[in-house]
Specification:
Blueprint (H helix, E strand, L loop, with lengths): L19 H18 L3 E7 L7 H17 L6 E5 L3 E7 L3 H16 L13 E7 L7 H17 L6 E6 L4
């Protein structure tokens, strides 16, 4: 029997991105790999500021999902739907400069949307955190901090897409 991948739990049915559960599983595995290899990783939370309960908002959300997936070029990058109306991006073995390059690529793609399919997503907010994982750093705190940064960006007075990338310091 051939396995029907469209019914699989590791993909989100609406966006085609990885599911949050699959993201967390891979993120945990990569976290421990980064510890062993003494490498940094970044986690980005993208808040698109869209009402996905409306058909037009949901379609724009799906279009933004495809843009995010296309903006991460490396095979190790992981883009997922997060908390129903956000996205989370895992960038493994990447320093802050590389992370900023990817964030800028995402923002430029949103800004230069030639198809006009991202009218309302032009005020998406990205919170990012670059961290060198250790056994003393709690993964859930890192994810929560990235989410908090995105939420703070959402509350700012700017109307165009913008981001904040912080370095997670171990004290």
């Amino acid at each position: 029997m051939i396995y029907p991948f469209e019914n699989s739990v590791f993909k989100d049915k609406e966006t085609g991105l990885y599911s949050e559960a699959y993201f967390m599983e891979v993120f945990h595995r990569e976290w421990h790999r980064m510890i062993r290899e003494h490498q940094a990783l970044s986690v980005l939370v993208v808040h698109p500021n869209l009402d996905i309960n409306k058909p037009s908002g949901l379609q724009e959300y799906v279009n933004l999902a495809h843009l995010l997936n296309d903006s991460t070029k490396r095979t190790t990058d992981l883009v997922s739907r997060f908390h129903n109306n956000e996205f989370i991006v895992g960038l493994f073995d990447l320093n802050p400069d590389g992370t900023t390059t990817i964030i800028q690529r995402i923002l430029n793609s949103i800004k230069q949307d030639g198809s006009g399919t991202l009218k309302h997503a032009k005020n998406a907010f990205i919170g990012g955190l670059n961290v060198y994982p250790t056994n003393n750093v709690d993964i859930s705190n890192v994810l929560q901090e990235a989410e908090t940064i995105a939420a703070l960006q959402n509350r700012s007075t700017q109307i165009e897409s913008h981001y904040e990338l912080r370095l997670h310091e171990v004290h």
